[in-house]
UniProtKB/TrEMBL annotation:
It comes from the Bacteria. Keywords: Lyase, Metal-binding, Zinc. It comes from Noviherbaspirillum humi. Signal peptide: none annotated. GO terms for molecular function: carbon-sulfur lyase activity; metal ion binding. Residues 2-118 form the CENP-V/GFA domain. This is Uncharacterized conserved protein. InterPro entries: CENP-V/GFA, Mss4-like_sf.
Length: 135
């Protein structure tokens, strides 16, 4: 079980399920949404995510058709993204987890969009677009 929150603490959650495959996405949308070289996200079972505080403080933005990105209305911390056509899965932002976990990225995706100033310092596989299992 892990707990997480936004930067200001208004939104808090607990997740009592297994993580899917952790990826680091470097596409232009993820870079803009995170304000960094990419987003580290993991698919989770939406039914196993419990909002402890602040669910009403979560805002969602449709960043591309059918893709919603969620963040705290107060501090702007990214919390998850979701596909409208797949409501049972959220892609939880690993940076919102309060305590470190042993989960590590299994792949870097959309590295074709990686800016020259971004360095990748691990040995995870790199893919120009989605990893082969999601193509």
């Amino acid at each position: 079980m892990v707990e997480g929150s936004c930067m200001c603490g208004m939104v808090r959650y607990r997740y009592a399920g297994n993580f899917g495959v952790v990826t680091v996405c470097h596409c232009a949308h993820c870079r803009k949404a995170q304000g960094s070289s990419g987003v580290v996200a993991v698919p989770v079972d939406a039914a196993r995510l419990e909002w402890l505080e602040g669910k009403a403080s979560i805002a969602e933005y449709e960043s591309s058709p059918g893709k919603m990105r969620a963040f705290c209305r107060q501090c702007g911390s990214p919390l998850y993204s979701r596909r409208v056509d797949d409501p049972g899965v959220l892609r939880l932002r690993m940076g919102s987890i309060d305590s470190p976990t042993d989960a590590v990225p299994a792949a870097h995706i959309f590295v074709a969009d990686l800016p020259p100033w971004a360095a990748l310092e691990d040995d995870a596989p790199r893919y120009a677009g989605f990893e082969p299992s999601r193509q």
